[in-house]
Write a structure and sequence with these properties.
Shape: flat
Number of strands: 4
Number of helices: 9
Distance between the termini: 21 Å
Strand content: 5-15%
Radius of gyration: 22 Å
Structural class: alpha+beta
Amino acid sequence: MEHRLIYATHNADHVELNPAQRMAVQHLREQLGRLLRRRDAFASLIRSTSEAPMGLSKQPNAEQQDSAYELTQGFFEQYYAALSALASVHGRIRLYLSHKEAPINSNDKFLDWWEVVGQNTRLDDRMDALRAARDFRSIFMHPQMWSIFDWATVSSRDEIRVVLHGAESSNRNVPQGASRVGSSANWEFVAPDMDEVLEGFELLCQATFLPIFTWYPEAESASPCVWEPDGVGSSIGDGAARVIRNALVADGVASGASARLALRLIEDLDKYIGSMAEIRKRAGATPVASAYPSGIPAARPSLSPRPPFAD
């Protein structure tokens, strides 16, 4: 995911931007890196948690549950910071002249704007997760807005989620994004999937930086990208992913151990290899471009204005 997030922002390295614009892009990358590290910390906690009897789910103790709460709170607070950093980029780099200017003073309105920009695109599949993350964070950080609520953890096989729950207000209201429990006056809100939130950010970054060549000239100091000698998306990381994946499923590896210890890793490698294949397919149909020698795959300039998520 780290490589995918970098790749989704890398077009900004290929065009002439002023110092403030470059600083906004760098700030976004730093915030995304912090968000990813918080996801990794939560995943590490899950791996350290003992299995329930019969191996049906994870079984965190009281201390691990409290850590899950803290790590979840940290992730969704960092989500808000990363979303604000993306809004800062749009406040300094205007990319969609056919739409009204992005509202950057409210993350809620910023997401509303994205729903219009990304309508009928791949972003539709992740907007629910992005908005749920915003709503979940609001309950965490603004408890004074709601009736008193409690929390717990729920687990299913290799997942642990924090769930907030409480009763409706005196006006029979429940927090935005929460679900009522049957026909009762109670509500619950299960933490959105962190990977889906990160995938949503990947799509937001793709849509942000894909059309940048339409309005900004290619950087004069650019040089051929050292990660793409063939010009169509190959990289050292791509080859390494294939080697690791093949090693994990080799005949010499016990099938039970491979499935138990490396299943998620194999799935992630498959997604990465598949995404790189898709990048090569798209890149092969466009002119070769140049880039700063930053270790980031090269971009392709657009000869005409491009909508978000254009094939």
